[in-house]
Amino acid sequence: MSEPPTTEPSARTTEPPAPTTAPSITAPPTTEPPTTALRFGYGTNGLTDLRLEDALVLLADLGYDGVGLTLDHMHLDPLAPDLATRTSRVARRLGDLGLGVTVETGARYVLDPRRKHGPSLLDPDPDGRAARVRLLLRAVQVAADLGAHAVHCFSGITPHDVPSTDTATAWERLAGSLAPVLDAAATARVPLAVEPEPGHLLATLADFHHLRRLLGDPGPDILGLTLDIGHCQCLEPATPADCVRDAAPWLRHVQIEDMRRGVHEHLPFGEGEIDFPPVLEALAAAGYQGLTVVELPRHSHAGPELARASIDFLRQGTGMRGATAP
């Protein structure tokens, strides 16, 4: 998902934080053949002023291949009654429209109306962590029922209240919280795709590899990676295209938007600093099979217009042609 928590301003940084530990460079084997056909989606967290039905029809009309579906009260509420029935209806509609889907879990206030993205997997309160785990378990079931490519999640920020949480304890909480979710993902055959998020405990690709080793390297079809291209520009030492190449064996979900170095602000294409053709070429060369989802969670007021402009931009960047919606 996503965007910085309100407790952390979008301040400029001069250098990215040192990785928690050096990443392992041993890549798991890949069995999928390379392909140059990228599949583009748009995140419903950037279309929150639309009913879900209207958002899905809009994206299909514009020629998108899929949708990043954030579970939240205005679209598919994971906490309201009759979730299975409502999910079944969405699955049928996605099928009718020919849209693929990735389930995203970055809704701001879905669990707590007063704490943005709270409680997290790092919450000092075990009951708080358990609430987030239950949400992720529901997301895995929803993803299985929708035929989704992956379930997205992130770690959360390390709590700094009294008493402050030390780094080792935070990693222990994260690994322990994710263990039952990974079991459910393995059973459902839907990978959990963890997103490095600026300001969070798991902020970088190096941190993802640290978590992978802590969990005994379950494999990318169980524990995969959500790579946000803007976050690479914001924080990683490598270029976004090099990040794609380095992360390719673990990629199970991709989010894309423009961004500037050192500033965690999701921007429409052309308003930041990213050179996108090399990024798109790297994704195609990697044989990435999932959705590449436009992530503009603070631009819902202009969602339909930005959805149209974004697919045109991405098509131009890949040399694709397609009709725009009437």
TrEMBL record:
Residues 1-35 are annotated as: Disordered. InterPro entries: IolE/XylAMocC-like (IPR050312), Xyl_isomerase-like_sf (IPR036237), Xyl_isomerase-like_TIM-brl (IPR013022). GO terms for molecular function: isomerase activity. Residues 58-316 form the Xylose isomerase-like TIM barrel domain. Keywords: Isomerase. This is Sugar phosphate isomerase/epimerase. It comes from Streptomyces gobitricini.
